[in-house]
Amino acid sequence: MLELIRILLQVLASGSFSKAGAVLNMAPSSVARSIDNLEAQLGVSLLHRSTRHLALTEEGEHFVEHAKGLIDDADNLVASLKSSNAEPSGTLRISVFESFGALVISPMLAEFLTRFPKAAIEIDLDNRMVDLNREKVDLAIRIGKPADSNLKARRLMANETLLCASPGYLDKFGRPETPEDIQHHNCLLLSHDRQRNYWHFRKGKQHHKLAVTGNLASKGGTPLMAAAETGAGILLLSSWMTAEQVRLGKLEICLPDWQASQYEDGSGEIYAVYKGGKYPNPLLRAFIDFLVEKIQGQL
């Protein structure tokens, strides 16, 4: 039945029996008979057919929703039965939020591909939250655990944040001495879909939640970093993005006695998120192990 399911999924992807047949190297009539056989085995009609259009029946929609998982499990089971010495291979599709992908993940990829020469990677640096169940993405790297219980997550690192500005900006506009002073500065902001921005400050049992404003906002940190380095304002970004600039003297930490964060309960942790199949893809498992090894080694 699995091969019949694969044919059905290809028909849906291609939009017709003839186009699916071209991909599968089958005659359109053989494709149609395969769908007939699948429907006969299931005892339901899966497709509404016409000369111009194919559409799933209600039963078909329900079946396909779960059949994709069966195919993934079957493929991963076969892969898991291969010798443990077999070299991981294939293409891994990864989605990473832009700044972390550019600064942390991208510099590691050449070493991974050298270590596993039969592997290939397609990486998308995008601050959009991808849907792993609907899009062709094997692994997403995100801040925070996924809310979807069908997804698995492995912690990569804490997402600590630093409050910084260029020495030139601070010389001109003054160095904040209290969290409240931040409200008198131009703050470079991570945008939250037009919601008001708040920064949180903690020291011991003290906690301040302060509304902040500024003339530059971005969904990603890269534009904010560039602006901060040229003296545009104060920013609050992850330490993995700002620590090197602090070390070089391009940025200066503000209010070092306070822990500043974007959210009341801290700035979270960074996770590798993937679909929770029973039989992990060996290449996916190898890449996650590699990330943990490299990132933990840098801390």
TrEMBL record:
* Keyword Cell inner membrane in record: no
Q: Which Pfam families match?
A: HTH_1, LysR_substrate
* The keyword Repeat is assigned to this record: no
Q: Where is the HTH lysR-type domain?
A: 1-57
InterPro entries associated with the record: LysR-type_TF_proteobact-type, LysR_HTH_N, LysR_subst-bd, WH-like_DNA-bd_sf, WH_DNA-bd_sf
Alphabetically sorted, this entry's keywords are: DNA-binding, Transcription, Transcription regulation
Q: What does the similarity note say?
A: Belongs to the LysR transcriptional regulatory family.
Protein name (database record): LysR family transcriptional regulator
Q: Which organism is it from?
A: Shewanella submarina
Give the classification, highest ranks: Bacteria, Pseudomonadati, Pseudomonadota, Gammaproteobacteria, Alteromonadales
